[in-house]
Amino acid sequence: MKWLVLLGLVALSECIVKIPIKKKQTLQEVFRVKILTKNIPAGKSLQSVRQFWCLTRVAYIGSITIGTPPQQFQVVFDTGSSDLWVPSVYCQSSSCSTHNTFNPTQSSTFQDVRRTVNLSFGSGRMSGYLGSDIVRQPDIASVVMFGGVDNSYFHGDLNWIPVIEPCYWQIIMDRVSMNGKVIACYGRCQAIVDTGSSLLLGPTDVVSSIQRHINPNPIGDSEQMMSCSDAMSPPPVTFTISGTDFPGTPKYYIQKISKSLCFSSFQGATENMFPLETWILSDIFLRAYFSVFDWSKNRIGLAPTA
Is residue 139 annotated as part of the catalytic site, yes or no? Predict the structure, then answer.
């Protein structure tokens, strides 16, 4: 698969550049929800349809234009991957045919960096060519910012957290608690702050324990599935980082599938990572907090959203 990889693209026409983003359910999840809700009679097990239920994929998509004149794309600003990339007109893969493709020959501001790139992802590989061009921003409510911080988007002061592993924006977390009782991350653990993940991920055995607190009456054989009538009753799950509590309420970690069917966004997955208890704080966590990724000082800033 060949893609055009674009690095260092933002044209700074002002001190803070804002690129709009919006919450979007992917096509795979639309099909998954339709299959799931169609095949669950009241009181029946989920066994017959569990093969379709992998994970919920909700992403925060930014609409941008690249080049002169502008060519429009939708992208995910992912802190879990180091590159912003879009498919080019030279891509021969069938997957490229479902996306807008960038034509560098149609842009007067495109510059060929004359370097190739090969990247590995959890779901596959890609190869392509490095290039640079101008990126621009229409205005809507939710944004990703480059070049500064707009204080009107959050309450109070930013809590600055040191990054211990810059590659993944990895930090130290003190504990995870509910109702003042520690339920995970005893004696500190590590967490990756990742804008490209759509579930709150932790070690499977630890997450199973949390699920029993959140969802004592699971539907069928899935610890994540629950009745929406029960979905607002769980207490907040509080992540304590650098001595500051960051509560996550059911409003954020309980997702609605249908009028009556909901699910918990916690999922086990990280038991093979090092160190043994590592968490991935995803979009579910970041929806509640304004976040600043300060590459120059190797730190992350968090504050409640306005």
Answer: no
